[in-house]
Amino acid sequence: MVEVVISFVQPADVGEILTLQRAAYIAEAQLYGDVSLPPLIQTYNELAAELRSDLSLKAIMGHRIVGSVRARYKGSVLHIGRLMVAPDLQGRGIGTRLLTAVERSATANIDRYMLFTGHESRANIRLYERCGYTQVGQVRSTSDSVLVQLEKQADK
User: Fold this and answer.
1) Residue closest to 99 by CA, chosen among 76, 119, 74, 117
2) 154 backbone dihedrals φ, ψ, rounded to 5°
3) 115, 79 Cβ separation under 8 angstroms
4) Count of CB atoms within 10 A of residue 25's CB?
5) How far is the C-alpha of 36 from the C-alpha of 26, rounded, in Å?
6) What would the pLDDT profile of 123-132 be if each residue is shown by its tens digit?
7) Cα 140 from chain centre
């Protein structure tokens, strides 16, 4: 099997990550019956701006981007989002590696990590809980679905 390499996203990666994002989130859209989920309607320019401003990592196999994750600092909390893996490669540990890498990439003044996932996204919740995250609440999203909030204390 080809090795997976985790590295920082580059400006030239925007198009491939947008394609990956749409492929990865279509299953979520089917699960919730909502094709207007933000990752599916995000434009190229919006994604490019987000990737420039956020801590953004990618997983590469050969010449293909097979996963990505983004995070944003808000005080002492690292908000992690858009963790995605190509549908044909899910379940092989790539998501876990990306999550671990983004946590390790955070600055030393981070106290905790926070992320959200859909309440019906059981595989996502299992992944996060296996990685040490705990469910701390639920919020209603803009698309009227329920999001589970998970948190994890940062290692000091």
Assistant:
1) 117
2) -75, 145
3) yes
4) 20
5) 10
6) 899 999 999 9
7) 19
